[in-house]
Specification:
- The complex is a heterodimer.
- The longest helix of chain A is centred in the middle third of the chain and has 48 residues, at 93-140.
- Chain A has helices at 11-20, 35-49, 53-62, 74-90, 93-140, 151-178, 182-186, 191-214, 222-244, 249-265, 288-294.
- Chain A starts with 10 loop residues before the first helix and ends in a 5-residue tail after the last helix.
- Chain A is elongated.
- Chain A has two domains: 3-213, no CATH class; 214-270, no CATH class.
- Helix content of chain A is 68%, strand content 0%.
- Chain B is an all-alpha fold.
- Chain B has a domain at 4-168.
- The chains are: A mainly alpha, B mainly alpha.
Chain lengths: 299, 260
């Protein structure tokens, strides 16, 4: 093949493909999942790499086959596919068919493990960690008191998207650099270790959350607080058992409301502690720091 | 609900983030709640409801072909409803619980509509296949934008219908509270605290394993001691927990790497 007929992708092509990767799931469907998304990401690359309409059509059709993985981690696969498509066009015609099969094998081989890793890392670890951090800050009332309501959502978005965009960009660039060897580089990022570490960090935050939910009673008396904490632990244990038995949070929500309504209509409990029904009250979650301040010096 | 049209537009834009574009998590309850709340003049209520929804449904993950509950619609509609009911001197905890209870079926409906759209998208893929084979690459690319408009329209319609429906059922709330002489409010007030417990359970169910129970106990005891005996403020406790968590994470990552 003459050197002048070879086409190399430039920075602009890669940026275009990377931006398109944000639309990977737009046409998500139950038949071929992310297939259209992959083809949409590759469209500008394939247009550049293949000169004839027939070649482009065939390449695009190849990428419309079944593909399903985690949307962020897919960037590793996408980068590698782009590299392999670029390499394929530089090969002699006789070896191009083999390269096509290699591309297909890479997609099939990588989508499962990468999806499992992405689900575990992002959906089950990073997102809950960021959510937990935000919820704990809401319960601490640190920013509500000053009226800075936007700080917590902004912090959540920043922390989450640093990880999200970092992985997407790194994955795409590494995929393009390493091509079909990208599988070997996945291990060096230490995703499993990060998942393990973040789980421990989340558990520490969870401890703070549980304390914050119960702290509003501190102002009254220690005995009441301990009683409340014991009751709370029992309730949490019961709910955890129910969730573990695959009862959905929505079903549990209605069960909780029904139980609370029954409690309210129970004759002996008709007078709830320190509650004025029709007087505007502060949201319970926002009380914590003020109470903490007011308890100072009382002990 | 004079702002229902603008809120529906806002929710329609945010609904694109759920699956269609990027997934930057601007559609999470902790972001949608305060945003809608701020729009309606009650950002604190939005933030608290967002936090509660985030906690309770934290374990509902989009793994494989499973579509989780549409939390964006749940938080948007429930916060809008709560803000509408708030000006009537009822305890906010009770109002938030009631609004959430009313919005759950609508969010479930929205999830069903999402499933229908994902089924319908199969036709778009077949069309894309024909366009690819026919060499119509421009039309092939346009399919993406058509489906994006489809998602936006779906988000707008579901939000608008939900907000209108909820607005017209708000009289039920006043009926309950008037006829039942405050008892319902009392029950909903209790329920709010129980819902926080449910949220903690959801987090425990997702994160806790046999190996981590000890660290949870340790964290609770340490934080409680700091809060009770040192009278430390919430934000400092969170900072300490973050640093401790970070140190623990580094320790276990190093340990795992050495073992591996």
């Amino acid at each position: 093949m003459a050197e002048e007929s070879l086409v190399y992708l430039n920075r602009k092509d890669l940026i275009s493909a990377f931006i398109r990767s944000f639309f990977l799931q737009t046409v998500w469907n139950f038949e071929r999942y992310l297939s259209y998304g992959v083809a949409f990401v590759l469209l500008p690359v394939l247009k550049k790499v293949y000169s004839s309409t027939e070649e482009r059509s065939q390449a695009l059709s190849r990428h419309l086959e079944y593909f399903n993985t985690h949307p962020y981690m897919a960037s590793f696969v996408l980068g590698a596919i782009i590299r392999m498509e670029e390499e394929k066009q530089q090969l002699p015609k006789a070896r191009q068919k083999q390269k096509e099969e290699e591309i297909s094998a890479l997609k099939v081989g990588m989508m499962g493990p990468v999806a499992a890793m992405g689900d575990n890392l992002f959906w089950a670890t990073v997102r809950p960690y960021c959510g937990l951090l935000a919820v704990t800050l809401v319960l601490s009332s640190a920013f509500q008191v000053k009226g800075q309501y936007w700080v917590i959502p902004l912090l959540f978005l920043i922390v989450y998207n640093v990880a999200h965009l970092g992985i997407r960009l790194t994955g795409f660039m590494q995929g393009y650099r390493k091509g079909d060897q990208v599988v070997l580089t996945l291990r060096k990022y230490g995703f499993q270790e990060s998942i393990r570490g973040l789980k421990f960090a989340s558990v520490i935050l969870l401890g703070v959350l549980i304390v914050f939910v119960n702290l509003s009673e501190l102002e009254k008396e220690m005995g009441l607080f301990i009683l409340k904490l014991t009751f709370f632990t029992a309730i949490v244990g019961l709910f955890t058992f129910a969730l573990h038995r695959k009862i959905s949070p929505s079903q549990l929500f209605y069960a909780v409301v029904l139980f609370a309504l029954m409690l309210a209509f129970w004759p002996d409990l008709s007078a709830p502690p320190q509650m004025n029904h029709f007087a505007p009250s502060k949201p319970a979650l926002a009380e914590f720091p003020m109470e903490m301040k007011s308890t100072k010096g009382k002990s | 609900m004079p702002h229902w049209f603008l809120i529906s537009i806002l929710l329609a834009f945010l609904s694109l983030d759920v699956t269609a574009v990027g997934q930057f998590m601007v559609s999470r309850p902790i972001v949608v709640g305060p945003l809608v709340g701020w729009f309606l003049g009650h950002p604190n209520i939005g933030l608290e409801m967002g936090a509660l929804i985030e906690m309770i449904w934290i374990g509902d993950l989009p793994v494989g072909a499973h579509l989780p509950m549409d939390l964006m619609m749940l938080s948007g509609v429930s916060v809008a409803f709560a803000c509408e009911l708030l000006g009537n001197q009822y305890p906010p905890e009770a109002v938030m619980t009631y609004a959430l209870g009313m919005a759950i079926p609508l969010a479930a409906l929205s999830t069903e509509v999402n499933i229908l759209i994902n089924r319908f998208n199969v036709r778009w893929v077949h069309l894309a296949q024909r366009m690819a084979l026919g060499g119509h690459f421009r039309t092939f690319g346009w399919i993406n934008w058509f489906v994006l408009i489809e998602h936006f329209a779906k988000g707008f319609l579901v939000a608008a219908v939900s907000l209108i429906l909820i607005h017209f059922t708000s009289s039920l709330f006043f009926l309950f509270t008037t006829i039942l002489n405050g008892r319902v409010m009392e029950g909903l007030y209790y329920a709010h605290w129980l819902l926080l417990a449910l949220g903690c359970s959801a987090v425990i169910d997702l994160l806790i394993e046999k190996k981590t129970i000890f660290y949870l106990m340790l964290s609770i005891v340490a934080i409680m001691s700091l809060a009770v005996f040192d009278q430390m403020q919430g934000v400092y406790l969170v900072s300490i927990a973050l640093c401790a968590g970070f140190a623990l994470a580094l320790f276990f990552m190093g340990k795992e790497r050495t073992n591996g």
